[in-house]
Amino acid sequence: xxxxxxxxxxxxxxxxxxxxxxxxxxxxxxxxxxxxxxxxxxxxxxxxxxxxxxxxxxxxxxxxxxxxxxxxxxxxxxxxxxxxxxxxxxxxxxxxxxxxxxxxxxxxxxxxxxxxxxxxxxxxxxxxxxxxxxxxxxxxxxxxxxxxxxxxxxxxxxxxxxxxxxxxxxxxxxxxxxxxxxxxxxxxxxxxxxxxxxxxxxxxxxxxxxxxxxx
Length: 215
Description:
It contains 5 helices and 9 strands. By secondary structure, the chain is of the alpha+beta class. The longest helix has 29 residues, at 2-30.
């Protein structure tokens, strides 16, 4: 009798588990996530079997939040060592602190995540145009009981500049290429500090465009 009861419970668990997995597959199929676009620079790095990567730290735009999260923009150059083909891009390095678990908080541990994205040459002109026409002229803009947000999207980056009556906010999101879950589809950084320095991006973008990177 006990064996019969045991096998009956075990069968119920297996059926329930199978049903949950089936429902999960149905939900995934019902809501397929579009593939993330990749810059030509990321594709260049992926396809080359031997590469040299040069980074120019002398020209950098650095944004930091109140919790010491950071985003850095600087020119980068990749060289295919077999073909000697060169390609420039804008690199974005992001360091953020995701929500901490209770276990980490109790141990006094701080988890940080670093991710990199690139804006390729095919998108640089559009980014320059966006910063020159919509960001720089509106850095000092102010509103009362109103808000306005300027948004630029590239294949790997989303750049937002919000102006409202309280001040100005910069939000930067980069694609997450390591996970497919909806909740982990991108990483986000925001700050209200040093927002006036967004125009520091322009000389960096123009240097990437000019291909004037010597090492």
